[in-house]
Amino acid sequence: MKKLDWLMLVLAGAAAVGLRTWQMRTGFDADGLPLSGNTAALALPVVLAAAAAYFVLSARRFPAQQDMAAPFADCFLFQDNTAVIAGVVGALLLAASAAVAVAGYTLDTSALFLAPVAVAAMCSILHVIFGCYRGTRVYAMALLVPVGCLALFFIHTHLSCASDPNLADIYVRVLAVAALLGSAWQLATFAYLEGTPRNYVPVGAMAFVLAMAAAAEQRSLASVLFFVGCALIELGFLAAADFRK
What we know:
The chain is mainly α and 245 residues long. It has one domain. Helices cover 75% and strands 0% of the residues. The model has no long low-confidence stretch (mean pLDDT 85).
């Protein structure tokens, strides 16, 4: 991505975090119901929509289809320290979220559900990153593991939010998991030589922004670690992406 794209990514992520934190603190009454006219609640969807529009338009310079002969390791180089560090730290945060979820488990079933999902995703992500870094073979099946994990997590998130009629309280979380799932799916297509850079970049960018916004909800330490870890993984793959071939 260009420097302007990175600047917009950082600004959109910072704005999303700030507005969601503000909304969680001032946008709900004592019963958890949204307050009408809250500035943060009104501004956050505008920021998210503007960021999505920008990244969709900016991604039009990328090819609609990656070279069919290009393996995954040629599309995501992971030779830059920033990309490697962001991806590895993000994967380790997934493991930390699993440990915190199990250690703090009481009667919350989502804690025990989060742990195996986070560990499986961490192992597959580390395999892909170090495989690209060392120039060894990256197994396509490894990129399907996060897809399956996030699909299960999305279903669980949707079911756990289904009984909550307060859309202002749940929509960021649901969108974040959906964007992460979409990004994981787009990454997996590159392993099968069907990757589409024009589709991956905006989805990956919005997955980062929405994951940071979901982390800003601060519902639990395990949730914060999980979403921050996912955001750093997205940042790592975006930094490693090379579609010039």
